[in-house]
Amino acid sequence: MLTLAIDTSTDNLGLALMESGQLRGEYNLSLKRQHSEKLLPLIEQIFELLGIQPRELNGVAVATGPGSFTGLRIGITTAKLLGRIFSIPVKGISTLEIMAAGIAEPYLLPLIDARRKRVYCSFYQNLRTANDNFLKEIYQPTAISIAELPELLSNYKEKEITLIGEKKKEVRRVLEANAFSTRLAEAESDLPRAAVLARLGENYFKTGQRDDIYQLKPAYLKKPQAEINWQQKYGNN
Amino acid sequence: MGVGKLKFRDKLKDESEDIYILALESSCDETAAAVNKNGLKVLANVVSSQVDLHKKFGGVVPEIASRKHLELLLPVIDQALAEAGIDFEDLDAVASTSGPGLVGGLLVTLTAAKTISLALNIPLIGVNHIAGHIYANFIANPEIKKPLLCLTISGGHTDLLYFEDLRGYKILGRTVDDAAGEAFDKISRFLGLGYPGGPAIEKAARAGNEMAVDFPRADLGDSYNFSFSGLKTAVMNYVNNEEQRGNELKINDLAASFQKAVVDSLTANLLQAVEKYDVESVVLSGGVAANQRLRSYIEEKLEEHNLKLYYPPLELCTDNAAMIGAVAYYQYLERDFAPLSISADPSLKL
Amino acid sequence: MDNSSYSIITNSPAETAKFGRDLAQFLEVPALILLKGELGTGKTLIIKAAAAASGYQGNVTSPTFNLIQEYSGEQEIIHMDLYRLDRTEELLEIGFEDYLTREALIFIEWPELALPLLPADFLFINIEKISAQKRKITVYAEGKRSSLLIERLNQKC
Q1: Is B153 labelled a binding residue?
Q2: 3.40.50.150, 3.40.630.10, 3.30.300.130, 3.30.420.40: CATH of B146-279
Q3: Are B129 and B348 in contact (CB under 8 A)?
Q4: Nearest Cβ partner for C65 among B56, B59, B178
Q5: What is the side-by-side order of every strand in the sheet holding A107-113?
Q6: What is the pTM of this model?
Q7: Were B197 and a residue from A142, B188, B270, B289 both cysteine, which residue would form a disulfide, CB within 3.0 to 4.6 Å?
Q8: What is the pLDDT of residues B7-31, one digit of tens each?
Q9: ipTM for the whole complex
Q10: Which CATH superfamily is domain C5-56+69-156 in?
Q11: Partners of A27 in beta bridges
């Protein structure tokens, strides 16, 4: 079982090849807005260096965001075509889930910088089973102002929350000022690691889970959970 | 990265063999796929339009277009292959528009073409969308005699070209400001005639008098260059003046007079070139080439020179991928391939 | 409103444009500037003047995109006109979230529908028509960065 992992959702370009539980290769490169130029040459290169032919692939796992829509479409298009040409399964996986799945702690808050004092985040509880970590999604991916995080997480003040990713230190300051207990992920876990994506993909494929390549699309965010209501102040004066 | 390229270079074909190319296009608001055999023979030409999606916004919304391209990508490819009766393995090359257009949209089919190139180990060809519109003519009229002049006009460009044969061209003139189609869109919106502007103006103009208002025609001296921003301003000033005087606007007359001014400017440069260059035919292309008034006026003028005017049939005037496949074939023969690192260029020029 | 606002009366389109140029001097990416005012009060004029002062040369032969236009000068400028939108959800379809992540100056005309989706730092410019030529322009700020900008406007203009 040979799985290719592709992540173009953030500034990190992630690529990994996993063969039946064994990681064959992994790229995580911080390439701002160069995914279009770099993705396919790097896929060609990783295959060449490892002496593997693209047609040997058995599945493709692809990150679906949140992240840059243009970046996401590059990775997802590549996954769709590989799935179509080789008739192999494709699975789209949330970028935040990839970040959370890299860490074995009970409460996980993966963060991606959404600029302007906002983050994309989701909140997971890690229910450890005998074989694997199982992530339960408590809050689905959303874009939120950092200042609003204490309110979002108010039911979890008693728990130690592990902060992962960009802005983790800023988020920690805000949460701790509100009497939360937090710990910071190690630096190497702050990226959505391509190897983790490959592992998740392989696990999904093993249990027969796959996406319809005709329906697969980026995780375009729905309306934010917490809206700031400026309407009263500026909407009708 | 070169190793993969060398592999397929061994099995490249020449003109004596049949060459099948899958071509993709997503530069604006149509998602399209086509299969061409030997360039000008179109085995399948599938176009899925999103025009209705954008109508409400008075113009194409880049993000909405990109989302739709991603959604329609596989269905149009599947349909094109099915209609052509071939499979991925039968392809000799894959092509995509690489510009000009909206980056987000272009990247959808360009990335798809790159993936197909890598997966099947066949050459990748990046095609200029404007060249595509020109080659639509050669698909529709394979009998066109060379050398020829081509006037290519759309919302993004206005160029006058000279072709010795189908493998290359020389640029004689281009717009120094607005493109002709851009002027149509802006004036159409200004007159409240809607989007897209070309057909809207043409429709209104049919019921109007094109001699009603004498709008200025830009004269750029001996050059073959075009200019439309002065005309645009003149129309806006005229309307503002009329409104201030409380006169009722005759929209149809305005549309007709504006259209005639554009047609005159385009025709003047073309005729100047016809007199200088010894050509066998003249070709129109681009979205604005669909304008009937432009066609009939140029045809009338070319008759005096015993020259025939060619233009693509309506179904090839809108964005499509068959035209991209036609260009790609000549690039294939020239071994003009793109590396997997090619990116979309929103303002790619001819 | 409070001391976090700046007001100016302009007597002609030329003066309104000058306000746009002055404002541009104080803008730093990423900035979000909302403009509210009736049709023909000078919203676009202010944006064009600010864009020009921010290094945008202005000569594009690109198709017309009514809703969102991007200008690249010395810095990236995004100009949205939300007049044709009916629902806040439509903002998500046009990729509004994605635009907010850009390191750009973002100008928004007819911003009412965007208000629920905004981050906590922005400038709000209200333009009132006093007479045919005369405008009262008031700039409000939300957030620390934008409030600082108001202070500077008040000191220098």
Answers
A1: yes
A2: 3.30.420.40
A3: yes
A4: B59
A5: A133-145, A118-128, A107-113, A160-165, A181-184
A6: 0.88
A7: B188
A8: 665 689 999 999 999 999 999 999 9
A9: 0.95
A10: P-loop containing nucleotide triphosphate hydrolases (3.40.50.300)
A11: A15
